Amino acid sequence: MDRAINVTCPALPTYEEYCAEIRPLWESRWLTNMGGKHEELRMGLQRFLGANGVELTTNGHLSLELTLQAMGLAGEVITTPFTFASTTHAIVRCGLKPVFCDIDPVHFTLDASKAESLITEKTAAILPVHVYGNACPVEEIEAVAQKYNLKVVYDAAHAFGVKYKGRGIANYGDASCFSFHATKVFHTIEGGAVAYREEGLGQRLRRLRNFGLDGQGDAGETGGNAKLDEFRAAMGLCNLRHMDENTAGRRKVTERYRERLEGTPGIQLNPVQKGVTPNDAYFPVVFHEKAFGAGRDEVLAALAAQSIYGRRYFYPLTSGLSCYKGRFDPSRTPIAQKISRRVLTLPLYPELPLDTVDMIRNIILSCKK
Ligand SMILES: *Cc1c(COP(=O)(O)O)cnc(C)c1O
Description:
By secondary structure, the chain is α/β, with parallel strands linked by helices. The protein is built from 14 helices and 13 strands. Helix 4 packs across helix 8. The longest helix has 19 residues. The relative contact order is 0.17.
């Protein structure tokens, strides 16, 4: 094969479309600090996500950190280790202690009933992840949070465009943090947003994003810098226009993968969730070696030999990262550990040809011993 197939391929508008979008910046000379493009994107996203309020940030990671800081939390945060390093790092960098809860073996999201058993008098919040765009059990999490008076912050980095029971996923919880990194289904090259329920939180986020400044030159709190500039907001405006066609393209690919792989002994796919409008962000496949006849790493290598690159996403668990050595025990979340050792996300982007999907399926099946 002449060209490598990567796990993802960032969406781009045409060169002309982007140039037209940034042209006014040469006249206004307003390049950052919440200019016109920023406001237009913020409003567009608020509409698209159907959220009460939205604030933009410079990346998804700072969305998480700012939200935890804005809530003024202290103590423990119940969270999942089956996620990207950012989720756990944000908790730790805010001086909070992550308490790892195991995941549901079908959708790989936080197991709400197990979360309840981890609550102590130090628990301040629950931070679940809508992993791969799978919706967390939002109603169960809400019930637990209400019973114990806890904040709920969703890491929604994978969940842009996902709906549950017809409502945008960001309507659940106190806040939902999105990532607009180039590899995500919607992107601003680098960027992020927090969708929030209460305006008070929005106000604090706006201050913390801009050094804690109050507009009169004084800083009432030690904020950082998490502003999204006009050029990246312009990229977001272009990409938002093409969101529906991109999702439709992804849907064709995931449907083909399902058609080709569903029912294969030893291969586990995430089922389509009831009541959920998916965003087709990722296509994770779990290889159960005994039943399938090959392990995840063999499949990864066989694909790589044909210049097709899957990703061990997420491996290792964040509780097993070197920087946390000796602090957490990954074996205390056995389901997460098992899935992490067996899961591979397959190439997925709107332009991925369907016959490449068929070829990927053939390479996967050829791994069986
Ligand atoms: C991408 C991602 C982040 C971090 O977002 P950035 O925009 O890259 O800072 C956080 N959590 C999860 C689950 C992610 O996939």
